[in-house]
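Weekly modeling sync, notes
Attendees: S.R. (lead), two postdocs, one rotation student

Agenda item 3: backlog of single-chain predictions. S.R. asked that every request posted to the team notebook include the full sequence so nobody has to chase files. The rotation student volunteered to paste the first one in as an example of the format we agreed on. Action items at the bottom.

Example entry:
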Amino acid sequence: MIREKDFEFISDKSGRVDAVASALLDIPRTVFSLDSLVMTINGKSAKKSSKIKEGDKVVIHYEEEILENLEAENIELNTIYEDDDILVINKEQGMAVHPGAGNFTGTLANALLGRYGDDFDAGDDDLRPGIVHRLDKDTSGVMVVAKNQKAHQKLSEMFAAHSNEKYYLAIAKGFFPETKGTIERRICRDRNNRKKFTVTDNKTEGKDALTKYKVLAQGDGYALLRVRIYTGRTHQIRVHLSSINHPILGDSLYTRKDNKYDVTMMLHSALLAVEHPATGERMVFRAPLPERFEKVMKQLGIDYKVDTISIE
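Predicted structure, as returned to the notebook:
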């Protein structure tokens, strides 16, 4: 379930708005990195690093996922790694991470409650353990889940600070004249379609986003890409590639239905590197190339053997 949160206050001190608000309202600093965050200072759009002074009026709105009143379901998960603190899975394409419009059952949240039962502390406080990052429903691949409060807090801080490393595989439309590229443009919600996001050059809107890609192989007007995101904005890879006229094959939200290939979205989280929340050890997790990629690559005439994705 998604719950909307709204706060409004008059500041009695000076400093960064995220630090002042977090202390005054008793909300975690990670809230200020959420894509759903909308914040104003004296009626003007603000970001988490904005400075405030005594007497400034701050209004904050964001959405949070809550895992209460969910049905526990016995859903098998493709486990990559598990210990007392974390669970790492290879999420199947088609599984939503949490309940939302049209997805009230069959989600990862339902599966976690079914898997751990009473041992999975899914309280309604802001530091509840469990889901610390997301993959879109039609994106497959590596995800890490926290199994206790401490792990949740540590992992949330890492994702908010972008200290992890995330690599994806994607099949994008069009011919790429260069073998490497960087896309650094802010991302905000599309005013004409609330389900979509878009790029903007307005520094008062949206959030910074950085994506780098490498062309691994090309064939029949499509390309296999390795993509690294340095920020974790909603739909980031989909929006950024679409912005340079290379949308992801099968992405029904950001491109028209492909005339040649009627396929699901060709985006896969192939590698995630994080520090273990308890030991501090740097750990690298990989999800193998999905069968749907192998089939489409064969159709496209892309002859490239993807064994493992390396960190660069």
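Discussion: group reviewed the output briefly. Residues 79-161 form a domain with the Pseudouridine synthase fold (CATH 3.30.2350.10).
Action items: rotation student to repeat for the remaining queue; S.R. to check formatting next week.
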